Amino acid sequence: MIKAQRGTKDILGDEIPTWQWILDNAKRIFQNACFQEIKTPIFEATELFARGVGDSTDIVNKEMYSFCVGGALKDSTSITLRPENTAGVVRAFIEHNLNRQSPPQKFWYFGPMFRYERPQAGRQRQFHQLGVEMFGIKEPSADAEVILSAVEFLKSIGLGDLEVELNSLGCNKCKNDYRNSIKEVLKPYLDELCDDCKMRYEKNPLRILDCKNEECQKIFELPEVKKVILADYICGDCREHFETLLEYLDELGIKYSRNKLLVRGLDYYNRTVFEIKSQNLGSQSAVCGGGRYDGLVEMLGGVPTPAIGFAMGVERLYTIVNKIEQNKTDYFVVSQNTKEALKLARKLREDNKTADFDMQGRKWVKQLEKASKVAKYAILLGEDEINQGFYSVKNLSTGEQVKINNLKELC
Ligand code: ATP
Ligand code: MG
What we know:
Layout: H1 16-32, E1 36-37, E2 43-45, H2 46-52, H3 58-62, E3 65-68, E4 78-81, H4 86-95, E5 105-114, E6 126-135, H5 140-156, E7 163-168, H6 172-186, H7 195-203, H8 214-221, H9 223-229, H10 236-252, E8 256-258, E9 270-277, E10 286-292, H11 296-299, E11 307-313, H12 314-320, H13 323-327, E12 329-334, H14 338-350, E13 355-357, H15 364-374, E14 375-380, H16 383-388, E15 391-395, E16 401-404
Parallel strand pairs: 1-5, 7-8, 12-13, 12-14
Antiparallel strand pairs: 2-4, 3-4, 5-6, 6-11, 7-9, 9-10, 10-11, 14-15, 15-16
Bound molecules: adenosine-5'-triphosphate and magnesium ion.
């Protein structure tokens, strides 16, 4: 029997309502904040990712699904299934001269991404991301707006208590100075670092700080190394940018913590980088990663344009949202009078509520049992209710029951 590929997953019937609900919320929150949806192709020239994500990253080095069209000999253009979507959105931004619209240009997206990783809980080879990218604003208000939209969206799907971890990588000048001091302090330990870090030492030393290898971690803990890692290296302008962002977050009541080891996987980030984590996810705890990438548009051939964005893993969101509640029908009409029950279900459906009823007029208790399994509320329609024209509404998770005279009173 042919099976689904390792690291891929079918999304089936009873999972769909939760997925749809997550997406409906994303659409509402991002569109309310004036982000426009953008859909870019699933594959792009390999070069776009090599340049746009960075060829010292794990994504480009180890995780890309790249192939040649029509076989290697026929056409040597290598294409790649997108491992992330920032590079694709930036390509589209440049190709369609979207910089001509007045800034900010704000986009949101949703779609599948592909990375050849070792499959495990929270880590697949085809997974979905939703995210936003905003172009044209260098001020920290843009960083605040983007972080706020991530937080508001997570709140809208019931994940209000997540913590935002933040760092500032500084501008190119700051990053360079920091890179050099990291290289210098790690030089004596070069032989002891893992193979990946040896490679990063040459190509992208900041990424060494992201290494999860225990031996490398021990080296970072050595006092003289730690001192350099934690040094306050960003310049006055970058510090001001960061501090203003923190003021915005305080003003908005967004909880955050500074994590000086947060460097993020992608090469192109500068200044603000952030992650949002959930305790509920164990080792793959990040649901959202983002940051500022002021140099990327220019690097990919566009006019210099500041930009910032984030991406969230939808599978990871899915595992932490309250699946059961979302799958439940809004109302189940409990009644021995099947005709009246059907009429009431119709009214509720007309009002855009999901509603069901018992078609066989079974015993009251049987119907209530069924309602508790499948619905959030039961509407009890006995003889009194029908004769006197009111409804008894029972909240099936709290057991609370109220009388209403008009369906408009339902929330
Ligand atoms: P990680 O450190 O978990 O590998 P990352 O830095 O590679 O994450 P990003 O490239 O920032 O991740 O992607 C943003 C989000 O996409 C992550 O926070 C995560 O929720 C999700 N994500 C990344 N890779 C995968 C994957 N292989 N399977 C499922 N979700 C993923
Ligand atoms: Mg990764």
